[in-house]
Design goal:
238 residues; 6-stranded mixed β-sheet
C-alpha cells in the first residue's frame, strides 16, 4: 500500500492510501480541499474515508468529500453517536480489509473515549490519530491516564519496524519536553537533530518507527500509569 502524507490545516496530517489494486482511502480529513486537490491532480477517486476519532480537525472534511465521491466512511463504533455520516463502524476484533489488505482497529481510549488506531500489518503502518504522536501523546480530554496507558500497551506490542503515522506535526515541541525529562538520552538527542533538519527543509517529521518511539518518547517509556499521568500533567502545564 502506498501512503502519502498530506499536511492540512495548521499542523494536522491526513493520509492518502492507495491499495495495490487501485482503491483509494484517506485517513482523518479535517478539511476537504487539500484532499480533493491531491486526488484530482493524480486522476484518483476516493473509496473510503477512515476516521480515528470525532474531533473536528479530523472529520470536518467528510461532508464535502461525500458530495464529490461515492465513498464509505469508516470510523470508531464507540463514537457513532458523535460522527455524522459514519457507514462502517470499526471495532477491536472485527474482520476488516482495505483493497484486499487486512487491517485491525485497536480501541485506544484516552484522548477520547472511543478513539481507535488503525493497524495495517502487511504495510507495517499504524495510523494513531491523536493517541500517539512522535515523542508525545494526546491530551486526556475524555479518558483517564490508566486508559491511555493501557492503550499504549497495544501499540507497544507491535513489531519495532511498525511506522507510526500520527494526526499532528507536534514533534519539535514534544521532543523539547522529552529532553527536559530525559536530558541524557542520546537517542533522543539524535532524533531531535534529525527532526530539526527535516522541519528546516519543511518536510514532515513522520512517519517514525515504533523502535525510535520506544527509545525517545517519554510517555511510552513511563513504565507505569502513575508515572505516565505525572508526565502528562507536567506537559499540560508546560
Amino acid at each position: 500500500m502506498k501512503i502519502s502524507v498530506l499536511p492540512i490545516l495548521e499542523d494536522n496530517y491526513a493520509y492518502v492510501l492507495q491499495g495495490d489494486d487501485g482503491a483509494v482511502g484517506v485517513v482523518d480529513p479535517g478539511t476537504a480541499e487539500p484532499v480533493i486537490e491531491f486526488l484530482e491532480a493524480r486522476g484518483l477517486s476516493l473509496d473510503t474515508i477512515f476516521l480515528t476519532h470525532h474531533h473536528w480537525d479530523h472529520v470536518n472534511g467528510v461532508p464535502a468529500l461525500l458530495k464529490r465521491y461515492d465513498c464509505d466512511v469508516a470510523g470508531p463504533r464507540g463514537e457513532a453517536d458523535k460522527i455524522k455520516h459514519l457507514k462502517t463502524p470499526l471495532y477491536e476484533g472485527g474482520d476488516f480489509a482495505f483493497d484486499g489488505e487486512k487491517f485491525e482497529a485497536f480501541e485506544t481510549p484516552g484522548h477520547t473515549l472511543g478513539a481507535i488506531c488503525l493497524y495495517f500489518p502487511e504495510s507495517a503502518a499504524l495510523f494513531s490519530g491523536d493517541t500517539l504522536f512522535s515523542m508525545g501523546c494526546g491530551r486526556l480530554f475524555e479518558g483517564t491516564a490508566q486508559q491511555m496507558w493501557e492503550s499504549f500497551q497495544k501499540i507497544l506490542a507491535l513489531p519495532d519496524e511498525t511506522l507510526i503515522y500520527p494526526g499532528h506535526e507536534y514533534t519539535l515541541a514534544n521532543g523539547a519536553f522529552c529532553q527536559s525529562v530525559e536530558p541524557e538520552n542520546a537517542d533522543l538527542q539524535q532524533r531531535m537533530d534529525e527532526v530539526r533538519r527535516l522541519r528546516a527543509d519543511e518536510k514532515p517529521s513522520i512517519p517514525v518507527s515504533l523502535a525510535v518511539e520506544k527509545a525517545t518518547n517519554v510517555f511510552l517509556r513511563a513504565g507505569s500509569a502513575d508515572t505516565f499521568a505525572a508526565r502528562r500533567a507536567l506537559k499540560d502545564r508546560s
